[in-house]
Design goal:
The complex is a heterodimer of chains A (about 110) and B (about 110).
Chain A lengths: L4 E3 L2 E4 L5 E6 L6 E8 L3 E9 L2 E5 L6 E5 L5 E5 L8 E8 L9 E2 L3 E5 L1
Parallel strand pairs in A: 2-11
Antiparallel strand pairs in A: 1-3, 3-8, 4-5, 4-9, 5-6, 7-8, 9-10, 9-11
Chain B lengths: L3 E2 L4 E5 L4 E7 L6 E7 L6 E7 L4 E4 L2 E6 L4 E6 L8 E8 L6 E2 L3 E6 L1
Classes of the chains: A mainly beta (about 110), B mainly beta (about 110).
Chain lengths: ~110, ~110
């Protein structure tokens, strides 16, 4: 158990819909990251938050957004869903924001868009 | 642009022998490297890491070697055990902490 909690574990929704994935970081961790894993793309970095503020941005679509709340939990919002958005979405956390802080991953949220 | 590359999609090793997983990178700004192990439908699990100021880090059966001039790192598992069968991801980071992952290598340990 990494200490990173993600909900829901599985989600099936229709194209055009909007979903929210939730992440609780490990106790004391200030950084939260979101990654997408699809069959053909491997693990792709989406976005990082540190202590409530956006820290780094990766290959995140404009239809996607995220935020980190004062209690440090984070949500990833996916809207206008397309079939290609079906993937496993991972949240991860680390204590700080510098290299040298190990990043720990949650179990992931399976999103299936039909 | 694939900044972190794992050129071997799969590797089979006999139980008890050494497993060597390789990773190449292109970004000279990377200063911290990590290896993750992943079982199907589970999140990546941290294995071992190395800072760019070192060339070797050892933790039990796992050793990571870093060759900065060649922009290459490798993970050695000795001795290999059946429970080591998984997908292994190499990852790198440069300051801002976002991990850049390789495509993964599926390691199969044969009895």
């Amino acid at each position: 158990d990494s200490g990173v909690t993600q909900t829901p574990k599985h989600l099936i929704t229709a194209t055009g819909q909007r979903v929210t994935l939730r992440c609780s970081p490990r106790s004391g961790d200030l950084s939260v990251y979101w990654y997408q894993q699809s069959l053909d793309q491997g693990l792709q970095f989406l976005i990082q938050y540190y202590n409530g503020e956006e820290r780094a941005k990766g290959n995140i679509l404009e239809r996607f957004s995220a935020q980190q709340f004062p209690d440090l939990h984070s949500e990833l919002n996916l809207s206008s869903l397309e079939l290609g958005d079906s993937a496993l979405y991972f949240c991860a956390s680390s204590a700080g924001s510098d290299s040298g802080n190990t990043i720990y991953f949650g179990e992931g949220s399976w999103l299936t868009v039909v | 642009d694939q900044q972190v590359k794992q050129n071997s999609p799969s590797l089979s090793v006999q139980e008890g022998r050494i497993s060597i997983l390789n990773c190449d990178y292109t970004n000279s700004m990377f200063d911290y490297f990590l290896w993750y192990k992943k079982y199907p439908a589970e999140g990546p699990t941290f294995l071992i890491s190395i800072s760019s100021i070192k060339d070797k880090n050892e933790d039990g059966r796992f050793t990571v070697f870093l060759n900065k001039s060649a922009k290459h790192l490798s993970l050695h598992i000795v001795p290999s055990q059946p429970g080591d069968s998984a997908v292994y991801f190499c990852a790198a980071t440069a300051g801002a902490q976002k991990l850049v992952f390789g495509q993964g290598t599926r390691l199969t340990i044969n009895p």
